[in-house]
Design goal:
It is a single chain. It contains eight helices and nine strands. It is of the alpha+beta class. It has a single domain, classed as Leucyl/phenylalanyl-tRNA-protein transferase, C-terminal domain (Aminopeptidase, 3-Layer(aba) Sandwich). The strands form two sheets. A seven-stranded mixed beta sheet has the order 4-5-6-7-8-3-9, sandwiched between helices. The chain has a two-stranded antiparallel sheet with strand order 1-2. β7, α5 and β8 form a beta-alpha-beta unit. The termini are far apart.
Length: about 220
């Protein structure tokens, strides 16, 4: 197959498609365009009371875009939510390039100097396409997700794409929508503007909970 470039990946996102590999060892990458798309509605994001208390306690140091390569490598190693992975060397190369171009972002959770959880995805307009997450400490990826949603809501994002709905994501309010409905949400989001960096890193855990759960 022809070489997939970072620019082609960005164009594919605007058309509702994303790349995957059969496994971490696979050489090829293929395009996915699900008939029913998973999204996390930003105005109906659900955070359990237990998780709210945890985020308020600020158990981890949260950073943005300081360890993108480490995050994607940990996700590729299948740490946390899965025992297998769809992230191969080509995917890692593509998204690392997108990070260098300012499109792919990571949120990291630290204990001291140890990276214990995080996630990464791609921002286009007012859409954020969540790719993968991992944890080495209990609930670290959940904390990263709450921080992501707070950042997206504060920055004016309107679409959080989760690709598929898993039991893990369903607890946060993830739903499936038909392809046609998703395409409408996508067109509106990518033609709008948002700021991934509008929320200061110094924001408190209490404020993160408020931002991620307040109703509009």
């Amino acid at each position: 197959m022809s070489r997939i470039t970072p620019e082609l990946v960005l164009h594919a996102y605007t058309q509702g498609m994303f790349p995957m590999a059969e496994s971490g060892e696979a050489r090829d990458v293929f395009w996915v365009d699900p008939e029913r798309r998973g999204i996390l509605p930003l105005d109906a994001f659900h955070v359990s009371r237990k998780l709210r208390r945890l985020v308020r306690r600020e158990p981890f140091r949260i950073t943005v875009n300081t360890a993108f390569r480490q995050v994607i490598r940990c996700c590729a190693n299948g740490e946390g939510e899965r025992s297998s992975t769809w992230i191969n060397a080509t995917i890692m190369e593509l998204y690392t390039a997108l990070h260098a171009k300012g499109y792919a972002h990571s949120i990291e959770c630290w204990e001291g100097e140890d990276l214990v959880g995080g996630l990464y995805g791609v921002a286009l307009g007012a859409a954020f396409f969540g790719e993968s997450m991992f944890h080495r400490r209990r609930d670290a990826s959940k904390v990263a997700l709450v921080h992501l949603v707070a950042r997206l809501r504060f920055g004016g994002f309107t679409l959080l794409d989760s690709q598929f709905v898993t039991p893990h994501l369903r607890q946060f309010g993830a739903v499936e929508v038909p392809r046609e409905e998703y395409q409408g949400l996508l067109r509106e989001a990518v033609s709008s503007s948002a700021d991934f960096f509008a929320l200061p890193l110094s924001v408190s855990g209490e404020r993160v909970v408020q931002l991620s759960t307040q109703t509009s």
